[in-house]
Give the backbone structure.
Amino acid sequence: EIVLTQSPGTLSLSPGERATLSCRASQSVSSSYLAWYQQKPGQAPRLLIYGASSRATGIPDRFSGSGSGTDFTLTISRLEPEDFAVYYCQQYGSSLPYTFGQGTKLEIK
Amino acid sequence: QVQLQESGPGLVKPSQTLSLTCTVSGGSISSGSYYWSWIRQPAGQGLEWIGHIYTSGSTNYNPSLKSRVTMSVDTSKNQFSLKLNSVTAADTAVYYCASAIAVAGYNWFDPWGQGTLVTVSS
């Protein structure tokens, strides 16, 4: 099983600032099969990024993903008030089970 | 566009079986190649993939739950289902259904249902 470790656990920033969230895998994620999700309280996760760097439909271009192998990053270029939420990475490579990171909480400073 | 909606009892007694159904609307469950998944989230915690069922009925389960999980699909009702037996308080969580394209490299989860809280308590 591939274990995903996200850091930091909590990130405190102000609107307008840049956010950088990390996701590290215990073994290489095949072909960058990694996704990022945003979850707000009481809501289901929403797909943001797939294939490590492709934005899902309707996702603003301030969200970007990068990385390969075992190290992946989600960057939010300029935080909007609605971006404060919990973010999860998930690998969907060739080895089951699919796994998620433990999440990074992005909170308003 | 496809939408998913979970349904089922919100309270299950310890040692009994948790049963949930996910209804698919806006498309046919048997059209295209999709994995129909269940994912759960205990309060204040992260996400755990439980397993998925393909339209043909073939399944893959998380090894951590495999001995207790059964998934099925009912194409006539456009639904798929989850059964988790011998539940304990540790199975208390919000349960989500979600779909993923059943092609290698396309297995991200989108869309998701809104989730349903299942509490295991006597």
Q: What stands out?
A: The mean pLDDT of chain B is 95.
